[in-house]
Amino acid sequence: MFEWKNEYLMGVTAIDEQHKQLFRMGARFRDAIAAHKGKAMLEELLDSLARYMEGHFQVEERLMSSIDYPEREQHMAQHRDLHERLLNLQKRFDGGETITIQVLQFLSAWLNEHTATTDGRLGAYYRMKKEAGVTSA
User: Fold this and answer.
1) In this structure, are residues 122 and 8 in contact, taking their beta carbons and an 8 Å threshold?
2) How far apart are CA 130 and CA 107, in angstroms?
């Protein structure tokens, strides 16, 4: 969990670097939990995830528009769902709930279900378009 693999590369440097950053955030949180410091790290992590999410999703959505990605709407729906889930976690944290494990599960799902799978399909489509000379992004 939270180990970067080159198979996750999309071929868009900015997005690939952002994905690596997300994996690093997950690994730091996992390590903090193992050191019994996960709860102390939660507020900083949730704030970092919110900032990351906003910028990262904008970059991906611009790419999808620029290459006329056929799964754009479904992909953006996943972005909205991830955003709602993060807001819910932030609200629960602000309300005093202990959500360390839920945040770990959220990050794991984000990386495994969205980054590796959904973004993987976007990356494959982008590379196909690039090889066909349709995009320079």
Assistant:
1) no
2) 30
Please, what is the angle between helix 100-109 and helix 13-34, to 10°?
150
pTM reported for the whole predicted model: 0.90
Task: Name the residue ranges covered by the structural domains of the chain.
Answer: 42-137
Per-chain mean pLDDT for the chain: 94
Kindly tell me the number of DSSP H helices and DSSP E strands found in the chain: 5, 0
Alpha carbon distance 106, 53 (integer Å): 13
Cα(first)–Cα(last) distance of the chain, in Å?
A: 30
Q: Where are the alpha helices (DSSP H) in the chain?
A: 13-34, 38-66, 72-94, 100-109, 119-131
Question: Read out DSSP for 49-87?
Answer: HHHHHHHHHHHHHHHHHHTT-TTHHHHHHHHHHHHHHHH
Q: What tens digit of pLDDT does each residue of 53-108 get?
A: 999 999 999 999 999 999 999 999 999 999 999 999 999 999 999 999 999 999 99
Identity at 16, one-letter amino acid code: D
